[in-house]
Structure formats: structure tokens, C-alpha cells
């Protein structure tokens, strides 16, 4: 939607364009974190405490905020500052804001039509003009909850963004969706609120009774206290984010985690310590309030609730389905849970798959690796001094301890299946499969990706559709991650440091560190190539020919769906070759393509001079911030006409590489056959002329015969040469001479200027 028509000449940044448009309406704008929805410090990207004072309508400031840092969303300071009141009708987490709205309208009056937007969670927000006569219009959560018929304000789906409030607006996006206007803000006036609503909104809210504040974090509320936090963090990927990714934890996940962690030993203090890891958001009073509420007013949330909030963490959980919720983990051994969360046992070969480190181990190796771990379990009939089940050391090797646990994940086979979010699933043969794929790529976020679009437009020519094919292959690897692309892309340039590696490594970042491998020429020649298997992308860096047949060795990697691979210190096992292969080189002949009709390699030659340092400085500065947006654009690219199994097209660069790939022997043979210029030749004639090409020591009859057959020549038998008794082996090109008599062949040689 066009908010304004380019307020700054030459501006093509939709986020900046929208921000400037809102400023023209008199709305004070702030940058926001689109994932967490809070105001973002324009310098650090962290939560911005000074946003109320910093909100602005100044174009120069907005250009500084949104001109480069495209990962920001756009927010509006509501209330008196922008003369806006926003009514937020939420439909997430079991709320029905529209139904609550209807009940409130019965008391306060029908709300008029006004500027409205949809939110990523499916709710709507209505924008109204702030009445000048109202002294205060405070923010509200669960406005009118008693009138709407709820027992608690937190269950009501109507919130108010008033004075000192904030509302996010398009083109801000989160969770794969975006805010969306129902009409253009430029042409849609803000309606006035009915008098009944103004009076109700102006009243100072009376907060519902809350549990008493706890001044001491160790003072436990009324809740079942059992188990250890270490076990919860070891077994639950969602809750462990409070420790591993504190800055990315959303509000509701944090609240649900309070209800679980607060019920463990020293739970309140533990939750305070974890919350404090996010220094920008931690507040002691807020943390106590959420602990009080989650421990006194709710039970511990189950796995389904966590999965709705963080589906990416819970989708691949190996324990989900075997427990009701992460609270049950607190009573288990943390060391055992650490193994169970990351390993799958397969009965096919009695192997253990480490899903995080991508290792396959035998029962013996698994036990040896984890022998140092001390694992205890609760005794059913022995009690400690406090009457609790006594924790006893679990006997036996670690593979036995693992497989005997009812929480352990077991499968028939292990396979690398990108795009399949289930960690354990059944295939078409009815086998239970352990999926060893991990989705650790950069998340896609719509936005500005002009840096990378400009770079590939400049770097990869499109005279023969080369750039289009590159983009199709990249998009296919993202959209259809489990389908192998049966060609390899090769970029050749004589000049160094053009940015080939930056382009390809950006692609790898979209896929994730565990799905991308970069190999040097020496590593490609290694006897152990296990690291190249079970990857979505393999990058052969600085490919060049030396003493091995790289062309022959990569044939199966490019085309075969599955091979037997040997990982270092491990047995041979079936594995998937890379689903996409790309190579770059500064050599004229980085790989000798010895088959003239090759269908595997797509070759592009770059005739470019290195650009000015400023260009690469911008690529280094802005490129990393735009990878997420470029991934989002590639995910939307139309690849309906791309066939991943189609042969690689013959480009001019590939034809030249095939010609340059010929050995001295091949070049001499082609020269001789061209010089003779006939479709019927005598073998001794060809050999004699090749000897005169300086190949005397390396010309053997079987080698010549094999090379001629590869070029379409066929032996037609032994026949007399001339009028004597001397005979020679006649060869013909193509099928026209098949079955020809000796006389016809002899005549063809004489008629075409051959030996008489």
C-alpha cells in the first residue's frame, strides 16, 4: 500500500517511505523490534527505554533510523503525542476481542467506522482521534473485563493504546505475517469516539486484586515445589532459550517459563537469575509480579502451550508426546535428559544419531563418549531423610541406560530430511525414521535486500540466462529443501576478490551452519569426505585441477540421491550427497570436463574488474543485515518452470571450458581428424599423423580406438589399401556407412582424397 509518494527524491526503501508518510500525518514514529514488538534503540537494536521522548516526525532522523537498518519495524507513539487512541481487539491465546467489543458497545455505544489494521496474530486495531477534552487516556490491558463477563482482566481481548502507549504499523512483520491496513491512512480520517467510550477510557483504571508482592525472591508462593531447574533446562528446548537466547524470548514464553521454573527448587531465585540475563528488559518488580500470577493463578503450562508460542523449538522435540509438560522434566536426571534431548537410537545397525552435532555412533562409541556422565534415578522404595525418593546411581553402560529410558527416542532408521519438522516420523514404507536435519538457517524477514540484488546483478551475467538459473537454484534450495538439484554451478573469473565467496556464503547462511559446508581443493581430495554428506549446500572454494580427476570424482555427488559414505573414525553408511553444489575458481580450467555432452556442470565466466573499496565496504556493512530479507524474497520467487533434474545448459563459457579441458592427446586427435576431413579413414593413417604431432611416446592403438569411439567413429573391418595385398582397419563416422562393402569404403577413401 502506498502511504505517500516518495517524500525524498530517489527513495526506494518501503520502510522509510512508510515512516515518512506517517510523520506527514503528524504521527510520532519510533523504530521497533518486529519480533518482540518493543521499541528498539536505533543505535543498538536493544529495547529502548527513551522511546517516549525520542519518538519523532523529523524526516532527517527517520532517514537515519530506517535508511540502513531495515530490520526495524515501524511503531507509532499513541495518545496525546500523536493525537491517536488505538483500540486493540486480540484473538490470540484463547481471547475473543471482537465478541468482547460487541458486549462493550452495548454499554458505551456503537463504535464508528475508522482507520483499521489487521495484526499478525489475526486481531484488529482501530485508530481513533484522541479527544482534546480528555485529560488522561491511560493504556489498558483487558479493558472492560467485568462488563465483557470475564473473571480476570487478563482473559479479556480488548486493550487500549492511549497516552504514552505504542502501536506497531505496516510494513512491520512478525511470525511470518505482517500488519496490514484495511484502507490508506492518507485518505481515511480518524473517527471520533462516542461520549460513553471517552468517559470510560478517561476513568483511572482500578487494577484487579493481585497476589501479595514478594520482596524476597526466595519466598515461595503456594505452589508444588519439586525437582531441579537444571533438568528443565536440559530437557526443554523452549525454556532453555531463557539461558541460551535471552534477548529473543517473547513475553508469553517468559511468563509460561515462570510457571514451570518457579515450581522447582529455589524456583523464584532461579527465575530471577535467568530473567536478569536479558539486562535490557529485566525488572525485579515485573519479574515478581509474573511469578506471583503464574504460580498462584495458573497451573504449569503443558507442551501444547509452549509449542504454540515457539513452534520452531518444539516441532523437533524428541521428548514431546511422552510428557504432558516440561514441569515433569524437573524430576528427571539432567545428564540423562541432555542425552535424550539430542540423540535418537536406531535399531538398523544399532546406531545413535546426535541430532545437534550430526554424528553417528555405535553402541560402544556412544557409551565411551558419555562414560563420564553421572546419571541417577529415583528409587521407588528407598527414601532419604526428608522422606523423598532416594536418588541412586544408575548402573550399566550409557547406551543401555539410554535405550531403557521410556523418554528416549527410538527409530528404525536415520535419514537427513530437510523441511520435515518432525524429528521422528513414518516413511512410505512404514518405517519409523529419525530425521537428522536441523533448521538453523537465518529466519526470513521481509525487507530491503537491495545490496544483494545489486551484487548478483553485477556479478553474474544474464546473457544466456545464467543469473536467472542461479536465482532459481537458490530459491529451489529454500522452497523445496528435500529435493536434490542434479547440476553443479561453477563461477569462473580471472580477477580475484570480486565477491563470489560472499555471494555463496550468504546463501549458506540462509540454510544454516549445519546444512552448509565449504571445502577447499585439498579437502575435496581427502579420503574422508563424510563432512560433505547430509548437507543442503556444498561450496567448492577455489576449485582447480591438479593430480586427480575432480570431474570424475564429483559425478556421483552431483547426480546420485544417496551414496555410501565413510565418516572419519566411523563405518561406511548410506548418506545423502549435497542437495545443491556450487564452485568458484580463478583458474581458466578449474575442472577438466572430458565429456563433450556433459549434463552436470553449469558454467558461468565473469569478465569483471574488482570494484572500488567503497562498494565492498557497503557489502560488508549492510549485507549481513539484509540476508533475512533476501531469503524472504527468494522464498517468494516463482520457480514453477525450474526443473531440478534437467541437464545443465551449454553456455559459451562451458563450451570454451570443454575445449580447454582436452588433453594434448585429445587436441592432437581432433586436429588430425579435422585435417583428414573425411567420414571414412584408415586407422594407420590417423596414427601416423598423430605421431607427427609430437605424441610419439604416448600414442597407443587402444587409446586411439577408445577416443575415436567416443567421438562417434565405428570400425568397419579390415580391407585392402590400394592395389597391393596391404590391409588396413577402416573406420567411419556416423551410421551412414554401416554395412557398406569393402569397395564402397575403398572408393570413399580414394574419392575423398585418401591413399590410393
TrEMBL record:
Q: Which Pfam families match?
A: DUF5906, Prim-Pol
Query: Start and end of every DNA primase/polymerase bifunctional N-terminal domain?
Result: 19-197
What name does the UniProt record give this protein? DNA primase/polymerase bifunctional N-terminal domain-containing protein
What organism does this protein naturally occur in?
Methylobacterium soli
